């Protein structure tokens, strides 16, 4: 039981001496204000005490007759304890000096004022000045001190101390000062409420602006995501459907004359359709992913995103349409980030799709060159006549490629060849990978 009581007392004592927060930041303007406040208060109190009447007035037994105050030779002054001016000035400076550090050490300075009060209790002027300094120090301790409970407990102790020292220590309030003592606090409180309301309105406006910015950011993110999905669908669908259209047209032309060739073309159409469906399922699977993982219904059909290791299959599908394609790998192939490989794959896919659509009868050449600094992808064709699907082109594929490459710091250059045909070159830096 005793151990528990001692533990509770120790915990309660620890809470008393534990600061509730840091001191507010102290500015140079605040330090100068405190210095001038202390000096001004001390000077005002000294001038008020120095202007008082120190002449001795003897007792009078005729209350209706005015007796002039005449100093008697050899008589002591009215206040035998009144010090000379130098001593009074020194005592008053000592009383107000704690106010200079009232914001840096608020509770310590309050107790410094309280300890000095009994030492100057023989001098009424200094004791009254000490009371004024105590009021300011008490306010500073209540507002600034991180030790809240000791600061609040010190306030009634200060009141009891000055009440017991001397009645003259606590000044009386003249009747003509009462309206000011009522109206000035009301004005201060009203101004504080007005400032608080203005800050609350500013905070609400700031919060509303922040919410609007967040909503706009979400909207932009959704637009970017829709654009990314559109590019992905464009890359997946356009290539495979273009190949299927070419193969179906070839099958139609040779259906009666060469049924075997028509059958091979239809098989290529079927393979292209299956490839298109597999990649579409992959994209749609990404769209249906939730926090628990991919959609179980689509998971079985998802395949990894294509990379450079699947260029042979891509080139072969284009060859099956009747377009001669030569694939060359230069340099030393090495593993690259999946995003880089996907981007390079999409560059080749888009370039060959454009060759099929815009250069019927042309031959194409694909070059993938590895170097220590970059990955270079170049697709050229020998030129041909635009196909039926060329009129539907809107250059969205090239725009999507540039955006894909920009993610990895890459560039895309497209230009006609001097000897005829078209050249597409993509460069992706690899120094940081």
TrEMBL record:
InterPro entries: DUF7134, HATPase_C_sf, HATPase_dom, Sensor_HK_TwoCompSys, Sig_transdc_His_kin_sub3_dim/P
Signal transduction histidine kinase subgroup 3 dimerisation and phosphoacceptor domain sequence ranges: 225-287
Record flagged with keyword Kinase: yes
Enzyme's top EC category: transferase
GO molecular function, one term: ATP binding
UniProt lineage: Bacteria, Bacillati, Actinomycetota, Actinomycetes, Micromonosporales
Keyword Nucleotide-binding: yes
Pfam families linked: DUF7134, HATPase_c, HisKA_3
Coiled-coil stretches: 193-232
Domain Histidine kinase/HSP90-like ATPase: 340-431
Residue ranges occupied by any DUF7134 domain in the UniProt entry: 84-163
Name this polypeptide is given: histidine kinase
Reactions accelerated catalytically: ATP + protein L-histidine = ADP + protein N-phospho-L-histidine
